[in-house]
Design goal:
- Helix content is 48%, strand content 7%.
- The longest helix is centred in the C-terminal third of the chain and has 72 residues.
- The protein has four domains: 135 residues, no CATH class; 144 residues, no CATH class; 43 residues; 45 residues.
- It has 485 residues and is mainly alpha-helical.
- The strands form four sheets. A three-stranded antiparallel sheet has the order 1-5-8.
- The two termini are 76 Å apart.
- α5 runs antiparallel to α7.
- The protein contains 14 helices and nine strands.
- Keywords: Coiled coil, Nucleus, Transport.
- Its main location: nucleus.
- It is found in: Nucleus.
């Protein structure tokens, strides 16, 4: 399993035309071979189905050799007119004519000139002849060879003969008749070249970098490899020049010394520059379909892009690339599940800490109330002690004088108390007479009624104030009594 480090990015469009890399769905790549049919490898032990052991570009069915089944005893289907002993096998890869679709050339620009199926047909007469009318034996065996060539071109493997004195055509996954292909979407990079973002693909599991100590060890190794020119975000800077660009940093990390250190110390598989594609290259990429793809299908994929601002269509050739993308998607899903699980664990820890904090807050609040009550009791006791030791002041003497004056006015002759007693005596003495009388004998004028109302109102207000004072005093006494116990 490959682990992608967040200090860089992989190729935007995935693997190269030679099938040495494959682009993931989420913007990382791994250095695994492309589709197994016709992919170039360095394996020399694989044996082809038709032909001998290969040393270059082995495929599922065969590879280039120095001898041929056609060159021995007249070939696989009989005698081969005009054949030489130096020709290659029917399904092996020999000399590749320049400009033919599905063949490798010395210039990558030549391979990108042919863009549509129509152009491929016009510029590849040899390819069409190998699939429709090969001229090898001059009998019905040529039809069998044509069908076999069609099968090979559909699978993108091997080579096909079409004429005895001509070199065979190599069928790769980029030929227009290759059937096992599709179009996916890869995310664009948002970083500029000046940001200096580089992708490192690690050939280790995620668990080996999940701990803080392991990540710190990785950062220390990166800091050492980059010559201590890093900061917390691992931006590479140089004195007098500023931050290094992404391409410069990528070229530096690909130097033999740094590449060896990355592979030995950090298990780095690949290093790629992560930069955004400018609008001109983006339009050219979307306008010209990849080799082997029809322009209408490619333009349909461009139109049906679910997010044109962040995604770009990406060609997928063969089951190997599809399987690799599926594995990378599954790995990304597992990584996201791990992150979600870690977030859940953090949420549980935060909830437990929050609950503990709430409990501590409740305890401290209750403790604060208890201390407040103790403080009130102390203040009350201190106030009482001060009252016992301090003599009466002038304010209290004035209050006492006023209270004595009020008491004298109440108990003096012909005042409120005596009048109330007289009224009570009259009521008790003439109770029967008052009950028998149906009419009111009092004759009050309007001014008397007004005075009585005013007097009763003042008396009621005074009584209400007295009642409030009594209630407040009672409450205060209850509190003091409760604190004194």
């Amino acid at each position: 399993m490959s682990t992608s480090v967040k200090i860089a990015a992989m190729s935007l469009f995935g693997g190269s035309k030679l099938g040495t890399t494959s682009a993931p769905t989420f913007g990382t790549t791994t250095s695994t071979p492309a589709f197994s049919f016709g992919a170039a490898t360095s394996n020399t032990a694989n044996k082809p189905l038709f032909g001998s052991t290969t040393t270059a570009q082995p495929s599922l069915f065969g590879a280039s050799t120095t001898t041929s089944t056609f060159a021995q005893s007249g070939g696989l289907f009989g005698s081969k007119p005009g054949a030489t002993t130096s020709s290659t096998t029917l399904l092996s890869s020999g000399m590749k004519p320049a400009g033919l679709p599905g063949t490798s050339t010395t210039s990558t620009a030549q391979a990108s000139q042919v863009s549509t199926v129509q152009d491929l047909i016009q510029n590849s007469e040899c390819l069409i002849r190998s699939l429709t009318s090969p001229d090898l034996f001059g009998d019905e065996r040529d039809g069998i060879v044509a069908k076999l060539n069609q099968l090979l071109s559909a699978c993108g493997i091997g080579s096909g003969y079409y004429k005895g004195d001509q070199q065979p055509i190599s069928y790769t996954t980029e030929n227009p008749f290759y059937q096992f292909k599709a179009i996916g979407y890869s995310r664009r990079s948002d970083y500029c070249d000046s940001d200096g973002i580089v992708a490192l693909t690690l050939g280790i599991n995620y668990e080996q970098l999940s701990r803080a100590a392991q990540r710190q060890k990785f950062l220390d190794s990166m800091n050492l490899i980059l010559g201590n020119n890093t900061n917390v975000l691992i931006y590479v800077t140089e004195k007098g020049k500023g931050r290094s660009s992404s391409k410069e940093l990528c070229a530096f990390l690909k130097q033999p010394a740094q590449d060896t250190q990355l592979k030995n110390q950090l298990c780095v598989v690949n290093v790629l520059s992560r930069t955004v594609v400018d609008d001109v290259k983006k339009r050219a990429f979307m306008k010209n379909p990849p080799a082997g793809f029809d322009s209408q299908i490619w333009q349909q994929a461009v139109r049906e892009n679910p997010d044109p601002d962040k995604l770009l269509p990406y060609p997928i050739r063969g089951f190997e690339q599809l399987r690799k993308r599926q594995e990378l998607q599954a790995a990304e899903i597992r990584l996201e599940e791990r992150v979600i699980e870690e977030l859940k664990q953090r949420l549980v820890q935060i909830n437990s800490k929050l609950t503990a904090g709430q409990n501590q807050c409740s305890y401290q609040r209750q403790r604060h109330k208890e201390l407040s009550h103790r403080l009130l009791r102390c203040l009350a006791m201190q106030s009482l002690l001060q009252q016992y030791t301090i003599s009466i002041d002038s304010d209290e003497e004035k209050l006492e004088t006023r209270l004595e004056a009020l008491n004298a006015s109440l108990i003096a002759p012909d005042q409120i108390k005596s009048r109330i007693n007289n009224l009570l005596a009259i009521l008790h003495g003439e109770a029967e007479t008052l009950k028998a009388t149906n009419e009111t004998r009092l004759k009050l004028t309007e001014s008397d009624v007004t005075q009585i109302k005013r007097y009763l109102s003042r008396a009621q207000d005074a009584l209400e104030r007295v009642i409030d004072i009594v209630r407040e005093s009672t409450n205060i006494l209850d509190i003091v009594e409760a604190h004194l116990k």
